[in-house]
Design a protein that fits this description.
OB fold (Dihydrolipoamide Acetyltransferase, E2P); 494 residues; alpha/beta
Length: 494
């Protein structure tokens, strides 16, 4: 028959949900500590609890060696000869247990020390039991009773242990009363120095999923599947659902007749808004649905590998698409698992215009890149607002002559210079000016002299003859070539 002490240990073990042998070991360790303190010894002590009598015996345990010279520590070792004085059956390598009287030696201090050791061991065993019980139940929904409120934390009774819900694991809309029963999610189990702490949550998306499984039979039996949930507790939840049966409307099943099913869940969540969205494999279509209630104009995939989308909405829909403090687009991005850039039509138009402007400015070529245009002529052109070769090439002779200081002959020279520039870019052959004439012309324009002083006109007959002898390939720039061919003889005659 078990002793009264052992029966007490057994009852304590059942209450704490731990193995009775753990408590027995704790008692034995406590006796060892108290005995060592009483005898002030460093011997290897061991204690044993007699289950039937309830008595606890303490021993000093020594290892048996054969020869005296092998004894390195007398408190830990004993020779075979000395061991056989107490135990005739002692053998080398065995252990000799030397009884240590404990009756009457466990005074008040020793007893208090033993009590502390027992409580410590029991607490450690209880922690391990709680940890092992709940570590595999993370993500599970359990019914809990509110036990007390400690500052911002709410302490729940979840059965075999207490659980804590910190502020970030609570919904902003909820307030609790002592004794109230609620459903919570086991978020994690922390093995801290004070023992394992079970952390529960009312803000986890898993809670919404569990509530839908409870309220919607089609989700419970697998006809409707929840593909994704994005939640900001106390504010809004977006849930994407799809149906495996073409005849079952996934969104309609979740909403229920007159919204009864979803309203039940909203009441459980204290009025949190819930958007139920039909899941789609195409991220473009899914994004349009996820941003509801805003109406989307168009969706563009910027980078499929990086999962990056651009969404354009009408100007009047921008604030609705973004939501309060960006909540709507943030939840949509969580639901899709894509990064979303959202813009209004006006913002997109300005962005396109800016890109076109940058493209145009990047392709513009300064006038200085064209050979044959002197500094003075370039200054006159810039003064008239012509700063690039492209702008100069687009101008008609009439527009050029309208610029002060530029006459017909200067227009012809500009035409040759610009044509030569583009011919060079395209890999063609430039039309060369006669030796020295380009420099002479540029210098004349730089000095502001009349065009005739730089290049004298040839007689009409010579011009006509030169025109007749010219080829078809130089037809576009023939007037300039005629002048260059007739100007030299004129100068030489002088």
């Amino acid at each position: 028959m078990a002793s009264e002490l052992y029966n007490t240990i057994d009852a304590l073990s059942r209450e704490k949900g731990i193995d009775p042998q753990v408590v027995v070991s704790a008692v034995e360790d406590a006796i060892v500590v108290a005995t060592r303190k009483y005898y002030k010894t460093q011997e290897n002590l061991r204690a044993e609890l007699d289950k039937d009598t309830g008595k606890i015996r303490a021993f000093a345990v020594k290892t048996i060696v054969e020869l005296p010279e092998q004894v390195e520590d007398p408190t830990m070792q004993v020779t075979l000869e000395d061991a056989r004085k107490s135990d005739p059956d002692a053998q080398v390598g065995g252990e000799l247990q030397i009884p240590k009287p404990t009756e009457g030696i466990l005074g008040r201090i020793a007893a208090q020390l033993a009590k502390q050791v027992i409580f410590q061991k029991v607490r450690e065993a209880e922690r391990d039991t709680v940890y092992n019980e709940y570590i595999h139940r993370v993500g599970e929904i359990v019914n809990a009773t509110i036990k007390r409120i400690e500052g911002p934390d709410v302490i729940f009774d979840i059965g075999k242990a207490e659980a804590r819900a910190p502020r970030k694991e609570q919904s902003r809309l909820e307030s609790f009363a002592i004794g109230e029963r609620v459903r919570v999610v086991i978020a994690r189990v922390e093995k801290a120095s004070k023992g394992p702490a079970v952390v529960v949550s009312r803000a986890a998306p898993d809670l919404v999923q569990h509530l839908f499984q409870t309220e919607v039979p089609e989700i419970y039996d697998g006809t409707v599947v929840i593909r994704a949930i994005a939640r900001e507790a106390g504010e809004r939840t977006k849930i994407a659902v799809m149906s495996k049966d073409k005849e079952v409307d996934a969104v309609g099943a979740c909403v229920g007749m007159k919204g009864m099913r979803v309203q039940s869940i909203i009441r459980e969540l204290r009025g949190e808004k819930i958007d139920i969205i039909e899941y789609h494999e195409d991220p473009v279509v899914f994004a349009e649905k996820a941003l509801q209630p805003a109406k989307v104009s168009r969706v563009t995939v910027l980078d499929a590998a990086e999962k990056h989308l651009e969404v354009v909405v009408d100007d009047s829909q921008l604030s609705l698409a973004i939501g309060k403090k960006g909540q709507n687009v943030r939840l949509a991005a969580k639901l899709l698992g894509w990064k979303i850039d959202i813009k209004s039509e006006e913002e997109k138009r300005q962005e396109v215009e800016q890109q076109m402007s940058q493209l145009t400015s990047a392709s513009a070529t300064p006038l200085e890149s064209v050979e044959g245009l002197g500094e003075g002529l370039i200054e006159k052109l810039k003064g008239a607002g012509v700063t690039t070769v492209e702008a100069l090439a687009d101008m008609t002779p009439e527009q050029l002559e309208a610029i002060e200081g530029i006459g017909p002959k200067t227009v012809e020279k500009i035409s040759v210079a610009v044509n030569n520039y583009f011919a060079t870019l395209e890999g063609g052959e430039a039309v060369a000016m006669p030796d020295g004439e380009g420099d002479e012309f540029a210098a004349a324009v730089d000095e502001g002299q009349p065009e005739a002083s730089a290049v004298e006109e040839a007689p009409a007959e010579e011009a006509t003859g030169a025109e007749a002898d010219s080829s078809e390939q130089t037809a576009e720039i023939q007037p300039a070539v005629e002048e260059s061919e007739t100007a030299k003889p004129a100068k030489q005659d002088e």
